[in-house]
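Entry type: protein chain
Record version: 2
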Amino acid sequence: MKAHSIRKVLSAAFPLLLVVLATLLPSWSATFKVLHHFAGGSDGEFPSWALKQDPNGNLLGTTYGGGQFQGGVALELSPNQDNSWSESVLYNFNFNSDEGSSPATGLALDSNGNLYGSTISGGPTDGGTVFELSPGPTGWTISLVSELSGASSMVVDNVGTLYGALGPGDYEAGAIAQLSQSPQGWTYSVLYSFCAHPPQCPDGEAPAGPLTWDSAGNLYGTTLYGGKQQPYCTADSFGCGVVFQLTPVGDGTWTYHLLHGFAASSQDGQSPSGTLVIDRNGSVYGTTASGGPTGGGTVFRLTPSTVGRGWVETTLYTFPDCALGCSPIHGLAIDKAGNLYGSAGGGEKACPGGVYCGVLFRLVRQRNGSWKYTVLHTFTGSDGAAPNGVIVGEDGSLYGTTVFGGESNKGVAFEITP
């Protein structure tokens, strides 16, 4: 048979071959698995933030309540050879202790295996604390780091210094601070106080989500309010929040840079919160709880400008229908391929309390530069409700928790393989 005839036959057969292969190959779907149903009592209840994975693949987290003293717990979930997971309570928080109770944020892990977090009650002033948990031969011991409660998860650098939204700041609008350890104890230092230019607070007010590092050692974060009164802002009279960058100067001080003030247009988001993520090119991604064309929130990207020092915002996705998710408040996770993952409210089923159970989603960049949104899982209550943020594990799976739902309606820990 001549070459052009062979090509003609193959061209005609190719569409049929694709149909046959499609029937033989399994269809793509995300696999969801509950790792642990929280039960209260001696167990924790109502998980409070995203999980943290340690170098051994164990998952670390906190709960608002439950435990031996009903003040919440720090916990570890460990994988077993039969693909099940076992929970261990590392520490039971006590309302009457100086170290605080009801841990409200996730845990940070330093190079020595110490864990750090914050509580919203208890402590010397009963206003919450920042604490350290240290492993030892007889278990974990807790110590007080700060009497100030952290509004978000702490992050730690390679020498064990902690950073986070901590304290009221010079203008009672919140501050980014560091906690440095020495033989004499921990020292609290303010890196930046918000609302330095009242009354409109163009630099932001009320820092919300946890901070994020880039490869150069800069810190990024968000505020819920401030950023001037943008023409389309409806969330607050002093602005709808900002994304900021803090750059170390070298003499121990840090320089503040405003990257974006929200509600700059009718399509723009409002009230950013949750975890920011940074890709290999230095672009910053996050979510807003509201705003956008339907008011259901957005996923955004900030890219360094090729002209000058400014940043360019692009809205990657606006939530058009709460049945597919809306009002994301926990930010994003990013995998090695640059795909984005997150959790949101909404969904298809109402859970106890009259709110919808929530969803998990993925955003994948397409060849034309757009982003494709996919719902990976819709919660129904029995498998969890009100998801916290997710993380991407070393194996590529997503791990997370829900505040409610599960067998006792006290939350679950889950894994999803996208």
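Comment: The two ends are 46 Å apart (CA to CA).
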